[in-house]
Amino acid sequence: MSVFVEAKNMETKAGGEPYECWAESCKALKIDQKEWWDTIKRRYGEKKRQYHTMNHIKEMFAYYRVGKNKLTRPHLVALAILFHDIIYNPKYPPGLNERKSAELWLEFAREARSKGSMLTLEDTQLVYNWILKTASHKCSPMDSYDCRVFMDWDMAILAQPWKRYEKYMAQVRQEFQHVPDFIWCTARGGFLRDTLREERIYNTKEYIGEMERTARENMARELKILDCRVGFVSKIAAIIIIFANGNPKSVAVIILGLAVLVALCILFPGYKEL
């Protein structure tokens, strides 16, 4: 049975619940589990979130439960899962959500250490670095297995069956509902193309194979949908230009507007969020 199927089966079991994993890690590291849980729960329950919710964390913990025995520092990985998206604002530029999440992790870790936790400065730095890496999900051969598989669990949504992937697409789009559709389609399409050009999406042997293939198929399918939507808007723009009836001033304004639109597509800050 593949890691993917095993993890999906785990989702229905209590062992995959975020609070249980939180309490387990806090107990092992001598951290007061009651403190901070309300903050974690409140953050992931924010109304602006559609995909980056506690359900995403629950799905990651399903994989965690399956792969836990292979981890060197399982309790640190569990804390990284809980804190990696604790700050999420779709209007932030790339990397800022991850930096702010990592900073909140530091605040939590400092407080825990001040109250006698077994969490060390080295542990704190490890989790801090892992959270920052979720901005790109790129790992080097020097990175630990714990780091690499944590990235893969965060990216596992890409290899879900198409119906779940469609729901993920809709959820992420809802989070960016403030972005005009043409800009969204172009920018999101750019992210998908960049990811598909990578030699590998996943970082560990468990996920390179069936899941890698499925993820690429899903992303290519989404890209085709986005390209169709961009093509439709482009045709509308062409019709507008035709109806400008050759008026130089009208055509100039339309061309300028389209140029600005394309520039916004390239520069828009939020398209790289998973």
TrEMBL record:
<keyword id="KW-0472">Membrane</keyword>
<keyword id="KW-1133">Transmembrane helix</keyword>
<feature type="transmembrane region" description="Helical">
    <location>
        <begin position="250"/>
        <end position="271"/>
    </location>
</feature>
<feature type="transmembrane region" description="Helical">
    <location>
        <begin position="226"/>
        <end position="244"/>
    </location>
</feature>
<keyword id="KW-0812">Transmembrane</keyword>
<dbReference type="InterPro" id="IPR009218">
    <property type="entry name" value="HD_phosphohydro"/>
</dbReference>
<protein>
    <recommendedName>
        <fullName>HD domain-containing protein</fullName>
    </recommendedName>
</protein>
